Amino acid sequence: MITRKPLRVIGGDLRTARLEPDPSGVKLRPSDGPPGELFIGPGWADAHAHVYDGMTEIGVAADQVGLATGVHLLGDAGSAGAATLDGLVKYVIPAADVRIRAWVNIGSYGLVHMRETADIRDVDVDATLAAIDRHRDVVCGVKVRSSGLIVGAMGLQPLQLGRLVAREAGLPLMVHIGEPPPLIEDVLDLLGDGDVVTHCYHGKTGHPWRADGRPSPALDRALNRGVRLDVGHGAASFAGDVARRAIAAGFPPHSISTDVHVRNIRGPVHDLPTTMTKLLACGLPLDDVIAAVTRTPREILGAPEPWLDEDGLVRHATVFRLADTPPPHRVYTDARGAVLDPTAHIVPVATIRNGTLERG
Ligand SMILES: [Zn+2]
User: Fold this and answer.
1) Domain residue spans in the chain?
2) Does the 7-41+309-359 domain belong in CATH 2.30.40?
3) 349 alpha carbon to ligand 1 midpoint, in Å?
């Protein structure tokens, strides 16, 4: 029934629609119909994933978490550093159907080594700047994992050096937060406008939220400077109760991302729509869920792209439905095993690229 023809819709960010056969191909018919109808909006982006398959311990195949799950654009979050970025650019990115941008790890070997910045000899400021210069078209920022198990005795140094590189290169920092040391206040005080805090609702000791869901003073200051909150669900970094309280207090995430890798793709993360559904279950309205996987992550990844052209023709989009039952065998748990209980489930149905319906 669905054919590869251009689709035409009238502007807007998110609308309900029905896919209908039409003499000229498939048309999206605007609809105010009941739940179960299709929604269409810009193609989804996941700002934090790990897709350096074959090189790092944790990489998954990019296309496994790409268009098949509604995702058009992935940010690989520090799988590669100065010494390994060339391989990502040469072998992984061109082989993938999904578009990939890269956060360069301040640790030269990226996530080949899971304590990538525990040794100062594995951080090379000039080599990282040179790698960024070689791949300006791919690199969206600098990644630093700034938590105790990773940095060890290096403390704040990887973050300070990552910040130096990011500022020198004119790019944002993405900072992984987790267990101290370093203290979260010291981490946040180093961040500025456009930088991204990933694992923002991690819920471990020393997280930056008060019991009433409002940000700690250091996070409040950071947000006022323009720092952005990214979910980065991961295997151990998303606490549903922390997210629920923060959202209720008026502090939703700027971007929803998976931190998908081999240790969480079979649960609790699965994919981006599962993570989106969890945020919906934590009280984030659907429009905000969609903005957090479209407009904002595209800005963060330095790849903004209008989804409609001037004539209203769809350039890129993800078509999805809200199901009232979960996909088969899907249990929605946070990273601590707490069950979230969504009443609606976001299920991708099709993607449209270059005006062409690619899956349906
Ligand atoms: Zn990650």
Assistant:
1) 7-41+309-359, 43-300
2) yes
3) 27
Q: Write out pLDDT tens, residues 152-211.
A: 999 999 999 999 999 999 999 999 999 999 999 999 999 999 999 999 999 999 999 999
What CATH homologous superfamily does 43-300 map to? Metal-dependent hydrolases (3.20.20.140)
Distance 48 CA to ligand 1 centre (A): 6
CA gap 339, 345 in Å, rounded: 14
What is the pLDDT confidence band of residue 16, given thresholds at 50, 70 and 90? low
The CA 259 to ligand 1 mean position distance, Å, reads 5
- Ligand 1 centre to CA of 25 (Å) is 41
Cα 108 to Cα 99, 123, 212, 262, distances in angstroms: 23, 6, 40, 22
Task: Please list all protein residues whose beta carbon sits less than 5 angstroms from ligand 1, which is an ion.
Answer: 77, 259
Instruction: Please give the distance, rounded to the nearest whole angstrom, from the Cα atom of residue 20 to the centre of ligand 1.
Output: 40
Q: Separation of 287 CA from ligand 1 center, angstroms?
A: 25
Using alpha carbons only, give the angle 127, 130, 131 rounded to the nearest 5 degrees: 85
Q: Which of 258, 202, 238 is nearest to 48 (CA)?
A: 258
